[in-house]
């Protein structure tokens, strides 16, 4: 038996404007490492809590969802890590200046914060996420692949290592196939081989690749019994149905029927400090729910949940989703970073850099249990009332939440559980 796992990787490629005009072995080390246009290394406002990031990151998560959803083909699954994408872009912003920096900050919702505060909040976040429980594995990290012979500003390197726990390593981008293989090996190792061959077609002018990965493996606090898993129909849309392995369990769950917002919500806890919130719109109401959904609804549903007896039917599934985020980020206001007027002087003030590509890939697998040891049957004392029935036999939304940091680790829409 497998545990449920979710993992993702985000890759940001930075291109040098003209390697041909530049002597690659020029010594870049003569800059004063203390000159940094975002002020002191630590803000004077005191240590920042990662909770400062939860509202802006959640707003960014839903802005991403609406944009990705508008671009998605009908019936396509959407799945991504808002935390992963926010982290990669926040790490990029440490090296940005001028309008490039303000556009990144504005899109990420950091208008009220400065770079030092964001950096400290991420430092706290990584510290909190590092305390992974034994029943649950959460691996969030960053890495920067730097072109051999190119030395980024010392302050940028220090910030990446100190605040984002980032590993910095050299890669020979003049051999693009070998460079891609090296980066892909790193991503595969950090995501337990769930994400492979993500980086393709590297440009020989690549100066740097920023990488973020998130790997999550959790065990249900209340596992399903595989003896009750049966074949059932899942209605992708009015005209399309697919056969799924439908898991079933009757038990006590945090549950809420939001009549005003046409949704039924259930919280499925993992062992540890995380849970999956499943949001099932009423029949024919998915589009309407997608138009209004925001972090306020997540808060409202979370606060409205009540422990109920629920007869839950949920499909087993294993899905993968990838997205190029270039056009999405441009539509959300990050434009200069991709253009010739990009300002990444915090990374290098000698070589003009711009972002050439931001890609994201995520996979999610859900089944009955965790390890076989966790499959021991749990007996719950049920009240004598009829249970509510929640049958996930049509498209539904999911949110994997980390409660201690108030983070949305992953979110998306399961349109078709059988689509690989």
Automatic annotation (TrEMBL):
<keyword id="KW-0732">Signal</keyword>
<dbReference type="InterPro" id="IPR000215">
    <property type="entry name" value="Serpin_fam"/>
</dbReference>
<dbReference type="InterPro" id="IPR023795">
    <property type="entry name" value="Serpin_CS"/>
</dbReference>
<keyword id="KW-0325">Glycoprotein</keyword>
<dbReference type="InterPro" id="IPR042178">
    <property type="entry name" value="Serpin_sf_1"/>
</dbReference>
<feature type="signal peptide">
    <location>
        <begin position="1"/>
        <end position="20"/>
    </location>
</feature>
<comment type="similarity">
    <text>Belongs to the serpin family.</text>
</comment>
<dbReference type="InterPro" id="IPR036186">
    <property type="entry name" value="Serpin_sf"/>
</dbReference>
<dbReference type="GO" id="GO:0004867">
    <property type="term" value="F:serine-type endopeptidase inhibitor activity"/>
</dbReference>
<dbReference type="InterPro" id="IPR023796">
    <property type="entry name" value="Serpin_dom"/>
</dbReference>
<dbReference type="Pfam" id="PF00079">
    <property type="entry name" value="Serpin"/>
</dbReference>
<protein>
    <submittedName>
        <fullName>Serpin family A member 4</fullName>
    </submittedName>
</protein>
<feature type="domain" description="Serpin">
    <location>
        <begin position="62"/>
        <end position="417"/>
    </location>
</feature>
<dbReference type="GO" id="GO:0005615">
    <property type="term" value="C:extracellular space"/>
</dbReference>
<feature type="region of interest" description="Disordered">
    <location>
        <begin position="25"/>
        <end position="50"/>
    </location>
</feature>
<dbReference type="InterPro" id="IPR042185">
    <property type="entry name" value="Serpin_sf_2"/>
</dbReference>
